[in-house]
Design a protein that fits this description.
This protein is mostly helical. It has 16 helices and no strands.
Length: 406
């Protein structure tokens, strides 16, 4: 067995299906982050408006809030593998359309917003299916937390490399090339999914009315505080803190007087911190106090945002960008691990859909809030408030975060 697979950090790679999935997703997610970075930069370059940045985030992610619960029901009812193949194919079609309208000169702000909303709707059905499918890729139960942490490292590696590449490509060849690269990157995940050999699917529970299944899922979260409280904390952080990314183009272009490359560097260093945190979580042993790690990382996030907002030297700010990424990474990763390891199999899809609502549903609302606030008090002051809010949230959840258990 290769030395890499003997490592505690990468033990999930001994599962062939998971290794294929990780490989395909790594390429596809980098392309997706290149697209997201390019869309945000193009919108800001056209409008020079913080509010429009928030509206762009809202357009892509708010559909997840609207449809994720339905996506969770679909995930629990139908074959998740086939569902992911469908959503990835539809995402590729969206990228093709975005590429075409850009190269033909029809990339107005409203066209970009509509296509972002289309992608957000597709993701509402993709995320609740993709995350629980990891259970079917991993043969050994003890490898599951590691696989979930590596999933986060995958996302954060893409978040580090994608925006940095996008900054270079935007400067040299324009947004259309970023969108074209994303289109091609979907080939990797579709091919890797096709090569996977998953075990036979277990019988699905008897279908009930959608409304009843939604109510059952919500009641399940209320009766299971080990899942419900992390989701509540994630909801608040996603609404009030994590939309800090909405303001980063303002810092790059106005505060630091830079260009798309500057924005790419900031996003890249945040991604570097996030992937460092993800590998840290992946290397943890069974029984580690995840809730306490979440508390410490949220404090790191809050303090780093405060300091980022007060410094106007780009070289120094990039150091705090790494810490921001490290602290922010734990919000969704720890919640993801707790939800997936503590949920009943028949409720896992719905539990993941509520996590998607908490993460992707609240962030666009927060993006609008932060964008509007920034129009009145400026980006630095808005970021300062977000950092202080993160510290207050830790205080509110102190008993849960420092209590007994994972």
């Amino acid at each position: 067995m290769p030395l890499l697979l003997k490592s505690t950090t990468f033990r999930a790679f001994r599962n062939r299906n998971y290794a294929l999935f990780f490989t395909g997703q790594s390429i596809s997610r980098m392309g997706m982050w290149m697209q997201r970075t390019a869309v945000i930069w193009v919108v800001y370059s056209m409008t020079h408006s913080s509010f429009m940045l928030g509206l762009t985030l809202f357009a892509e992610q708010f559909p997840s809030f609207l449809f994720s619960a339905l996506g969770g029901i679909v995930s629990d009812r139908y074959d998740r593998y086939k569902l992911i193949l469908l959503t990835q194919s539809l995402s590729m079609v969206q990228a093709v359309i975005l590429t075409v309208v850009t190269y033909t000169g029809h990339d107005s702000v409203w066209v970009l917003l509509v296509l972002s909303a289309v992608l957000g709707t597709i993701n509402a059905f993709d995320v609740p299916a993709r995350q629980p499918l990891v259970h079917e890729m991993v043969n050994e139960p003890e490898d599951l937390p590691n696989a979930l942490s590596l999933n986060s490292s995958l996302t954060n590696l893409a978040k580090m490399v994608g925006p940095a590449l996008a900054g270079i490509v935007l400067s040299e060849w324009g947004a259309g090339t970023c969108f074209l690269v994303n289109t091609v990157s979907f080939i990797a995940i579709i091919v890797c999914l096709s090569l996977m050999k998953l075990p036979p699917q277990p019988p699905r529970p008897q279908k009930q009315k959608v409304g009843k299944e939604l109510r059952d899922g919500f009641r399940y979260l209320c009766k299971t505080p080990e899942i419900g409280l992390p989701l509540l904390m994630l909801t608040l952080v996603s609404l009030l803190v994590l939309p800090y990314s909405t303001l980063l183009p303002v810092f790059a272009k106005v505060i630091f007087e830079g260009d798309a490359t500057t924005y790419g560097y900031i996003m890249g260093f945040i991604g570097l911190g996030a992937i460092s945190g993800a590998f840290f979580l992946a290397s943890l042993r069974e029984g580690s106090r995840l809730k306490r790690i979440l508390a410490v990382n949220t404090v790191i996030l809050g303090v780093s945002l405060v300091l980022f907002s007060r410094i106007d030297n780009l070289s120094v700010v990039l150091f705090f960008a790494v810490l921001i990424g490290f602290g922010a990474m734990a919000q969704t990763t720890v919640c993801n691990i707790l939800v997936q390891t503590k949920s009943k199999p028949e409720m896992r899809g719905r539990a993941m859909s509520y996590q998607a609502m908490a993460a992707f549903g609240m962030m666009p609302l927060g993006g609008l809030l932060v964008g509007t606030l920034s129009e009145h008090i400026g980006a630095p002051a808005s970021l300062l408030i977000q950092g202080i809010t993160a510290l207050l949230i830790v205080l509110c959840f102190y008993r849960f975060l420092w209590g007994r258990g994972r």
